[in-house]
């Protein structure tokens, strides 16, 4: 009897972990108001953490460079989860402010790049690149270009020339 219970408990834990990794947004929405320790137990260690001047913080969960997702878990000053969302969406990208944002601002929003950083000498611009699904299903690359002072110059979304379609999976 104890063996069966132990097996049931183990399979339940595996199923719960699978749900968190396969449906992170749905899992996290149910966790709003939970402490940071619960988020860490469910999703593991973040790839990056940022502390803001107002006492809030953000944990980044990046699936780059091979994946298409970067999730941000936002916590209030008391360490409670207030938001969990996919950051590599056109809505989030279009909020970038060229001429205002710095590399730090881009990193806080989308995480540090996991693709090799490129430098274009003729433009005198450094480019950070991220993979995403444009329009929700078309594989694409988002690039953020910085001038030599580290200020965001422009952003660009380019559809992946190899094609593919997330809907076909």
TrEMBL record:
The keyword Signal applies. The lineage of its organism: Bacteria, Pseudomonadati, Pseudomonadota, Betaproteobacteria, Burkholderiales. Keywords: Signal. It comes from the Bacteria. This is Outer membrane protein assembly factor BamE. Residues 1-17 form the signal peptide. PROSITE patterns: PROKAR_LIPOPROTEIN.
């Amino acid at each position: 009897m104890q063996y069966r219970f132990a097996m049931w408990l183990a399979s339940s834990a595996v199923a719960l972990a699978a749900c968190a990794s396969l449906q992170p947004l749905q899992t996290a929405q149910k966790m709003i108001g939970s402490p940071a320790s619960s988020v860490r137990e469910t999703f593991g260690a973040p790839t990056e953490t940022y502390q803001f001047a107002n006492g809030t913080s953000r944990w980044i969960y990046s699936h780059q460079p091979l994946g298409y997702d970067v999730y941000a878990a936002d916590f209030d000053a008391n360490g409670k989860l207030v938001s969990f969302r996919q950051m590599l969406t056109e809505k989030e990208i279009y909020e970038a402010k060229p001429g205002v944002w710095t590399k730090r601002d881009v990193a806080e929003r989308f995480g540090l790049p996991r693709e090799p950083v490129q430098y274009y000498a003729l433009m005198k611009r450094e480019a950070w690149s991220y993979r995403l699904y444009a329009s929700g299903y078309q594989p694409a690359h988002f690039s953020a270009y910085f001038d030599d002072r580290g200020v965001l110059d422009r952003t660009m979304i380019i559809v992946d020339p190899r094609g593919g379609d997330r809907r076909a999976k």
